[in-house]
């Protein structure tokens, strides 16, 4: 059941996700639901409305009903599972929750979202307090929004919506970062991630600090560390960015990049190049071959803030993937 939780959090604020409407936020704002950071708690920390919680908390309901928050996914895609995290809510968590999803074009206003026809993806289910409540999702359609309903009221620290990104190809330029999570890139292998997860390298924007990147343990044997990335689509690669920002005493001494297509042999994209600490590096490349995977080798070990693979993707691949998931969605949606 927990395997889905290693996938991309489509709702994360780091990808542009946001809470667009909630019916009640009396004790704590619903915006906390999509924060990428782990929830925190400081006991006996009070403001004018009571104990401060790092999550969404509604008032005690004195009439029948439930509370609702609508979330715009930062990266629309196929949802594989939902994590309703009630961390630190022990006497004030909801007894049950349900989750619905929606696919829509454009940027509908909250009123239009409330009136839409939603697809149930997690039925009303019991919750435990102060824990991650994991619910797998079998529906393989592409969605743009989710609606969390808590029964009857209470607090939820985070809502994670794990899945695979399926971008709309009409909104993508001819050349872009085909490794970024926001376009559907993902980590498919890694030798070591002792200090930092490699998926951090594929996140949008600049790294904020050293912990916002990939960092390995100190290697004490021969060889080197590596990470493999599945690209958003088979692509002709034009530039590779290797950003060691914030890594000053622990940047790799050198790096190289190889590509592969359809599971074939690896070929050279970027030969071994020396790297400087705390430096964004850009390298023009011209392998003349398309790749759907790249492998970054860092020598011998260390940390990398961001990896960008700027390429010209196979548009037919992107369009077919999008069409496949949207065709299923169209049959049951009312806002398209």
From TrEMBL:
<feature type="domain" description="Allantoicase">
    <location>
        <begin position="184"/>
        <end position="313"/>
    </location>
</feature>
<keyword id="KW-0659">Purine metabolism</keyword>
<dbReference type="InterPro" id="IPR005164">
    <property type="entry name" value="Allantoicase"/>
</dbReference>
<keyword id="KW-0378">Hydrolase</keyword>
<protein>
    <recommendedName>
        <fullName>Probable allantoicase</fullName>
        <ecNumber>3.5.3.4</ecNumber>
    </recommendedName>
</protein>
<comment type="similarity">
    <text>Belongs to the allantoicase family.</text>
</comment>
<dbReference type="InterPro" id="IPR015908">
    <property type="entry name" value="Allantoicase_dom"/>
</dbReference>
<dbReference type="GO" id="GO:0004037">
    <property type="term" value="F:allantoicase activity"/>
</dbReference>
<comment type="pathway">
    <text>Nitrogen metabolism; (S)-allantoin degradation; (S)-ureidoglycolate from allantoate (aminidohydrolase route): step 1/1.</text>
</comment>
<dbReference type="InterPro" id="IPR008979">
    <property type="entry name" value="Galactose-bd-like_sf"/>
</dbReference>
<dbReference type="Pfam" id="PF03561">
    <property type="entry name" value="Allantoicase"/>
</dbReference>
<feature type="domain" description="Allantoicase">
    <location>
        <begin position="16"/>
        <end position="165"/>
    </location>
</feature>
């Amino acid at each position: 059941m927990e395997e889905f939780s290693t996938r991309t959090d489509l709702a994360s604020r780091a990808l542009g996700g946001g809470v667009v409407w909630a019916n009640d936020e009396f004790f704590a704002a619903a915006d906390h639901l999509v924060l990428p950071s782990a929830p925190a708690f400081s006991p006996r920390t009070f403001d004018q409305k009571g104990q401060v919680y790092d999550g969404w908390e509604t008032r005690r309901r004195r009439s029948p009903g439930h509370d609702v928050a609508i979330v715009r996914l930062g990266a629309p895609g196929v949802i594989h599972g939902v994590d309703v995290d009630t961390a630190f809510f022990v006497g004030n968590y909801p007894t049950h929750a349900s989750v619905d999803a929606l696919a829509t074009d454009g940027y509908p206003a909250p009123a239009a979202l409330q009136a839409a026809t939603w697809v149930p993806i997690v039925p009303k289910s019991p919750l435990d307090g102060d824990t991650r409540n994991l619910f797998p999702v079998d529906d393989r359609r592409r969605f743009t929004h989710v609606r969390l309903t808590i029964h009857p009221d209470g607090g939820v620290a985070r809502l994670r919506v794990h899945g695979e990104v399926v971008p709309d190809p009409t909104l993508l330029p001819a050349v872009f970062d085909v490794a970024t999570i926001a376009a559907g890139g993902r980590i498919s292998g890694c030798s070591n991630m002792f200090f930092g997860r490699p998926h951090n390298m594929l996140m949008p924007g600049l790294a904020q600090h050293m912990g916002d990147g990939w960092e390995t343990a100190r290697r004490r044997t021969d060889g080197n560390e590596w990470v493999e990335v599945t690209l958003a689509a088979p692509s002709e690669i034009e530039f590779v960015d290797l950003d060691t920002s914030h890594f000053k005493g622990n940047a790799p001494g050198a790096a190289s990049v190889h590509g592969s297509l359809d599971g074939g042999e690896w070929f050279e994209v970027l030969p071994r190049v020396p790297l400087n600490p705390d430096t964004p590096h850009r390298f023009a490349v011209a392998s003349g071959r398309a790749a759907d995977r790249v492998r970054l080798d860092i020598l011998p070990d260390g940390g990398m803030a961001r990896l960008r693979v700027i390429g010209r993707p196979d548009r037919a691949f992107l369009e077919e993937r999008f069409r496949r998931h949207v065709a299923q969605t169209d049959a049951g949606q009312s806002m398209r």
